[in-house]
Amino acid sequence: MSLCVPAIRAMEGQRGEATVESLIGNTPLIRLRRVTQHLSPALQVLVKAEWFNPGGSVKDRPAWNMIRVAEEQGLLTPDKILIDATSGNTGIAYAMIGAARGYRVQLCLPANANAERKRILRAFGAELILTDPREQTDGAIRKVQEIVSADPDRYFYPDQYNNPANWQAHYHGTGVEIWEQTEGQVTHFIAGMGTTGTLMGTGRRLKEYNPSVRLIAVQPDSPFHGLEGLKHLQTALVPGIYDPTVPDEVMEVSTESAHAMARTLVREEGLFVGISAAGAICCALKIAESITSGVVVVLAPDGGSRYISDSLWEEEG
Ligand code: PMP
To answer: At a CB cut-off of 8 Å and minimum separation 6, what does 154 contact?
Structure first.
């Protein structure tokens, strides 16, 4: 069974020296102040700022946990190539941890993944296999399966969509942190769904602490969306780790609303969040507007600088 995050830290960062791996997790909770001024003073909306992870996103957590568990189980050895399908952030996490631990990393991703991500991946030394953008992440998943099945002994395929160590990273990390940071006061947890690991793991842990915590999953409102990292589950391959009974509610958000929220947050709160984060925050504010008291926690998977070449930021001349 997986170790809890403090135990992992103790192992990795003995005598106080940090490693890249030991810096993963323990991200801050940042309170929204100005965009919540119209709400009841008995309400707090808190953003779990995952861009504080060393690889810049929430995906450092599951990537590290999947690698750690695979090393323990002897599935990942220095002669193997780590391969997976990723829209970007998990790949950056694999590439970063792979570089730190000496693994060769190959990643399949849709050819239209944004330029910053591809550059960062290559900077860490990962090899990229670009797939048909029309097939989105599902095309990348099919490509990995094809490569691995042709030579299974050569690869370690963490398969983040079906690997329990993905959601368990959040069960042992994110969920515990949110409970402790809010001193058990959290009433709502909101997160977007890609692999669904964040919602499954954090959600399960929070429900164990307090079954009345409400879990809200965020989905794009259409199959063709600009919310990188999120899946439109009605039309996409459903991840094996997804359990539809975990969320109490599924909310939809449009790319346009997420873009508008990203602009508002950077100008009015000084928070430069990524697009899926902004989408989740749209839903968090809707929830907050429908209640009079509570502690609403929304997870921001990454920061805005990862999307700086997107058309969203072009208007300013
Ligand atoms: N947003 C972004 C930017 C992501 O990279 C991811 C991970 N794919 C998510 C949201 C969704 O997180 P999860 O895979 O844990 O559902």
So the answer is: 80, 81
Q: Where in the chain do CATH 3.40.50.1100 domains reside? A: 21-52+173-313, 60-156
- Fold assignment, 60-156: Rossmann fold (3.40.50)
Mean pLDDT within 199-227:
96
Active-site residue, from 59, 118, 143, 231:
59
Q: Which tens digit of pLDDT belongs to each residue from 65-79?
A: 999 999 999 999 999
- Candidate from 228, 276, 281 with most ligand 1 atoms within 8 A of CB, to mutate: 276
**CATH number attached to the domain at 21-52+173-313:** 3.40.50.1100
Residues 6+ apart with CB under 8 A from 119: none
Catalytic residue among 22, 57, 87, 276: 276
> Ligand 1 centroid vs 122 CA: distance in angstroms?
20
Q: Which residue reads 């590290």 in tokens?
A: 64
Name the pLDDT band for 8 (thresholds 50, 70, 90). Answer: low
Q: Token digits for 78?
A: 């220095």
Percentage, residues of the chain above pLDDT 90: 80
Ligand 1 centroid–CA 40 distance in Å is: 30
Nearest atom (ligand 1) to Cα of 86? 8
Those residues whose C-beta lies under 8 Å from the C-beta of residue 108, and which sit 6 or more positions away, are 83, 84, 85, 86, 128, 129, 130, 131, 140, 141, 143, 144, 147
Q: How much distance in Å is there from the Cα of 270 to the middle of ligand 1?
A: 22
Instruction: Report the C-alpha gap between 194 and 211 in whole angstroms.
Output: 24
Please say whether the beta carbons of 294 and 43 come within 8 A.
yes
276 included as an active-site residue: yes
Q: Which atom of ligand 1 is nearest to the CA of 198?
A: 15
Q: Is the CB of 98 under 6 A from ligand 1?
A: no
Q: Is 226 helix (H, G, I), strand (E, B) or coil?
A: coil
